[in-house]
Amino acid sequence: MGLKIAPSLLAANFSNLQADMDMINRSEADWLHLDIMDGVFVPNISFGFPVLTHVAKLCHKPLDVHLMIVSPEKFIPEVKALGAYMMNVHYEACPHLHRVIQQIKEAGMKAGVTLNPATPVALLADIIRDVDMVLLMSVNPGFGGQEFIPHTLEKVRELRALIERTGSSALIEVDGGVNDETAPQLLEAGADVLVAGSYVFKSPTPEDTIHALKAL
Ligand code: DX5
Ligand code: ZN
User: Fold this and answer.
1) Residue whose CA is closest, atom 4 of ligand 1?
2) Active-site residue, selected from the candidate residues 35, 38, 64, 192
3) Where are the domains of the chain?
4) Are 9 and 32 within 8 A, CB to CB?
5) In this structure, which topology does domain 4-214 adopt according to CATH?
6) Ligand 1 centroid to residue 36 C-alpha, Å
7) Which tens digits make up the pLDDT trace of 50-96?
8) Residue 152 in contact with residue 193, Cβ under 8 Å?
9) Whether the predicted pLDDT of 1 surpasses 80
10) I need a surface site. Which of 100, 125, 159, 197 has the fewest CB within 10 A?
11) For residue 24, what is the DSSP state?
């Protein structure tokens, strides 16, 4: 199976997305990670559906959509229309998480739940069998290029134990501050998918950087 790598569009060159998507298509990247922000749930705004519609046409890898917005369920049809493979919603943004997860699956997408750094893994006990993935934030969401929060490693181990105990088939994805130092630690702790923004796109040879992460 091996580690999956999902480069994050947030760190791409927005003045030449075609070139960056060609690179992603040629690379060993497994998915493309798309960060949608609303300036309310997180203190930043990234890009929205008019831009992502074009990105979706240029990118031939499965799309891993990370919604950092309030009421993410309102946008299930738009995310589906992008052709998304996985739709991740924040635990903190969904008072009716069970319903939202079912709606995402009914729309024909894989459903992921995301936890902010201060949200405990234990809160997933009653939803872990229903989700296809848990996305653990290893930085506070809203910005690329931040430093990895080391406590995430303990959360990955705790989540791995919860998944094993419950017989869940959820994947563990980690997002924020992934680089050549943190990626091996996350793999060892039990992560299945790593998001990498700055480390991939700001590298002089992004394709080689993706290859190096895949070879871990
Ligand atoms: C942050 C986003 C991340 C971001 C990661 O809110 O969810 O996906 O792109 O960026 P890096 O890899 O630079 O920490
Ligand atoms: Zn993200």
Assistant:
1) 144
2) 35
3) 4-214
4) yes
5) TIM Barrel (3.20.20)
6) 11
7) 999 999 999 999 999 999 999 999 999 999 999 999 999 999 999 99
8) no
9) no
10) 125
11) H
